[in-house]
């Protein structure tokens, strides 16, 4: 499986990606803004990557490496977690700090949203972000997801309860744009 956009390739992770994934994800700012733990070690990455093949084969999740076409560099992760019974998918992603501000998360999210709606025939796509993670909220809006509400104190993050904001879109929303 491989998805492509103008500047990016989204492909399954390889064992050889573990070191770079850990290097990028082991960033306090990524941990502060996402659900990625900190510290994040190569062992974490290896264990996580080892679960991917089965998830992709079963169609329950598509955790894909975001690769910059020009340089071939791993820049982050774009995941679509699928609930086949209810025909919906959850977007989850992070981009390494050296690549922030380039629009890679939005480009990769549009690419995987197209895959979810067109190939997997999902009815709904959704995502959530910590209430203070404005860049992630902008990514979801750029794909066409609309703000659906706040889940107050939904998660315990870094020792404190935090709100998350839910975004979503249904197939009809996408077709009307």
Automatic annotation (TrEMBL):
This is Protein N-acetyltransferase, RimJ/RimL family. SUPFAM superfamilies: Acyl-CoA N-acyltransferases (Nat) (SSF55729). PROSITE patterns: GNAT. Residues 8-171 form the N-acetyltransferase domain. PANTHER family: GNAT FAMILY, PUTATIVE (AFU_ORTHOLOGUE AFUA_3G00765)-RELATED-RELATED. InterPro entries: Acyl_CoA_acyltransferase, GNAT_dom, N-acetyltransferase. Gene3D superfamilies: 3.40.630.30. It comes from Salimicrobium album.
């Amino acid at each position: 499986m491989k998805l492509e956009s103008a500047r990016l390739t989204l492909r399954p992770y390889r064992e050889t990606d573990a070191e770079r994934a850990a290097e990028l994800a082991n960033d306090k700012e990524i941990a502060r803004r996402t659900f990625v733990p900190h510290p994040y070690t190569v062992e974490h990455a290896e264990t996580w990557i080892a679960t991917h093949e089965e998830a992709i084969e079963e169609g329950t999740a598509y955790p894909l490496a975001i690769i910059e076409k020009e340089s071939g560099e791993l820049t982050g992760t774009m995941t679509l977690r699928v609930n086949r019974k209810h025909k919906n998918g959850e977007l989850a992603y992070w981009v390494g700090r050296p690549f922030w501000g380039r629009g890679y998360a939005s480009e990769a999210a549009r690419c995987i949203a197209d895959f979810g709606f067109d190939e997997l025939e999902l009815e709904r796509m959704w995502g959530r972000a910590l209430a203070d993670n404005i860049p992630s909220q902008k990514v979801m809006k750029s794909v066409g997801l609309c703000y659906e509400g706040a889940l107050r104190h939904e998660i315990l993050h870094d020792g404190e309860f935090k709100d998350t904001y839910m975004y979503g879109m249904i197939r009809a929303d996408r077709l009307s744009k």
